[in-house]
């Protein structure tokens, strides 16, 4: 077990596969830093490895909303508050990553696509210690935020794809309507 670990994702709807990733990393470290990429619209950048990640419909949630949903999910999964921190993670401005996360931590990644490979290269380029938790095909990776946002926008069932705390937060804060509006604007 290492002292400090770091994970990162957009969490543009924190889902159960995100939680699997976060908990797999938490099992390997005493303190986990959960980095939220694209923390604000000025951080959103295009990538040839994931062209839709920069669109407004792909980024409907604010940093604060994602922070609160992740915190609720961590509580739901009984992770003690002192065992993790939730921080911005400016992956598209890598020179700032260690302003928010420990440079002596282990940066954990799950690799499912070209974008994940790109993130691994970015972190290695900063001479940060990385550990790949798994390499999976897109099919093996399962649910994605894109799929969940699409389910919400088209009126399909999605509650079973996210932690209970996330479902409650989204429905109680009326976020479903924002997701539908942004989805339809991009069509």
TrEMBL record:
Keyword ATP-binding appears in the UniProt entry: no
Superkingdom of the organism of origin: Bacteria
A GO term for molecular function: nucleotidyltransferase activity
Coiled coil: none
Organism placement in taxonomy: Bacteria, Bacillati, Bacillota, Clostridia, Lachnospirales
Designated name of the protein: Nicotinate-nucleotide adenylyltransferase
Keyword Membrane in annotation: no
InterPro entries: Rossmann-like_a/b/a_fold
Keywords of this entry: Nucleotidyltransferase, Transferase
Source species of the chain: Faecalicatena fissicatena
């Amino acid at each position: 077990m290492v002292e400090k670990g770091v994970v990162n994702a957009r969490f543009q709807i924190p889902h159960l596969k995100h939680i699997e990733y976060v908990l797999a990393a938490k099992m390997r470290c005493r303190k986990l830093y959960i980095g939220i990429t694209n923390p604000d619209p000025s951080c959103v950048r295009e990538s040839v490895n994931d062209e839709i990640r920069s669109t407004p419909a792909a980024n409907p949630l604010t940093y604060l909303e994602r922070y609160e949903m992740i915190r609720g999910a961590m509580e739901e999964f009984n992770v003690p508050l002192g065992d993790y921190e939730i921080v911005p993670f400016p992956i598209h401005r890598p020179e700032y990553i260690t302003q928010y996360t420990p440079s002596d931590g282990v940066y954990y990644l799950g690799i499912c696509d070209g974008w994940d490979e790109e993130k691994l290269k970015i972190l290695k380029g900063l001479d940060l210690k990385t550990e790949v938790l798994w390499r999976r095909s897109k099919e093996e990776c399962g649910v994605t935020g894109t799929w969940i946002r699409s389910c919400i926008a088209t009126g399909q069932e999605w509650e079973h794809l996210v932690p209970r705390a996330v479902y409650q937060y989204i429905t109680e804060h009326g976020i479903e309507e924002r997701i539908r509006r942004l989805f339809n604007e991009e069509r």
